[in-house]
Automatic annotation (TrEMBL):
It comes from Kordiimonas sediminis. This is N-formylglutamate amidohydrolase. It comes from the Bacteria. It holds the Pfam family FGase.
Amino acid sequence: MKIKGFTLDLPVPENTVPLVFDSPHSGTEFPDDFSSPVSSEKLLTAWDAFVEDLWAPAVSQGASLLKAHFPRVYIDPNRAPDDVDARDVDGTLPFTCKPTVYSERGMGLIRKFALPGIPMYETPLTAKQIMDRIDTYYTPYHTALTERLETLHQTFGSVWHIDCHSMKSKGNAMNIDNGQPRPDIVLGDGDGTTCEEGFIAVIEDSFRSKGYSVSRNVPYKGGYLIRHYAAPTRNRHSMQIEINRAVYMDEQAFKPNNHYQTFKQDLSDLTKELCAYIRDAIDPSLSTPIK
Ligand SMILES: [Zn+2]
């Protein structure tokens, strides 16, 4: 049985602002063809737990929210569709593989290692298995995001996109900051290349005003999703928010902690500020209700 790959939650038309959140790594539904010797506990460490729930109130404030249902260890929407090492494929894919540093670390489109030294699969996936994952889950997710951003951009003349993630409180050997403790929040805008400054400043100020530690682009500058969709000179702004899991959950038990509801409210307050910023920024003559 194939699962539905994503949900796109939309605001009511008269309240819509051109702001889209996407949560590519919070899915937990494994399609039936998934099989791995790795324990579910280890697989869960790659899960951006509860991120889609933390941002859910954004929809009632006027934003759209896209969330993947499939896990990122099955196929990763935050990678280029050709970020595959051909040596990890049984057979030949119908495109030229262009493995990046993500694939080199075992975290390409199709994950090679669950954790350092722990392979995801006993034998390489076949080319057909990989193409099925691309066609059934990866591409529809990107098509939904593309279409929503396009609709909003056409209607309002500008669109803002936030790619939502969470991170372990400390990186491991597959991460670029192995062993280092991380701040509460990491904002990524490709070192200032994917998003206008005013928008990211609202986010940074909001988190800091509530007492959270925030860094920009260290250790994460933002992944494929924001680089693929950003075009600031054409009023398409994308940035990434990484939330330290220790802020809102017990990382060992995979359960919300005592701060969860407060943090969710803080994100809701932040979204309200962002929607106000966007309503001020867009041409008022364009802010007509859309479907
Ligand atoms: Zn993530």
